[in-house]
Amino acid sequence: MAIDTVLLAVGPMDTVRAEDLAETVLEIAEPLEATVVIGHAFTETEYEEFREDLGLEARVEDVDPDAVATRRAPVGDLEERLTEAGVDCEIRGAIGDVGDEVVDLARSVDADRIVVGGRRRSPAEKAVLGSVSQDIILQAPCPVTYFRDVNVLD
């Protein structure tokens, strides 16, 4: 199976591990000359919470998710790092249930691999709070590379 498109699914917690995620993606995409889609999904509530910080006037129903994702950390840093390495990349955003939106995004870009970061949680925390990474892994239409950052506890 050829890898032509890699979806790097990121969220706000990935700012602290952006460089490590970029390196992980480059290990896959660079030698295969694959395109990387940097995907950032967020809930309507998250959008409403940070839209003022980003200087956006539009309410969630009038927003272009791709434009918002472009302005959300760590997307810009990742795009810069991947572009500097000579990897073609694009940015895609989505609003809704994060796990479902990432899986839908993987389908829409015909991703051959998803790279997703995660954090350490106890089984009880996963049971109560859920795990977006786990949802993505279980629903993904392609193989998933899970980057576990043991230094991120929240």
UniProtKB/TrEMBL annotation:
Belongs to the universal stress protein A family. InterPro entries: Rossmann-like_a/b/a_fold, Universal_stress_UspA, UspA. It comes from the Archaea. Residues 4-146 form the UspA domain. This is UspA domain-containing protein. Pfam families: Usp.
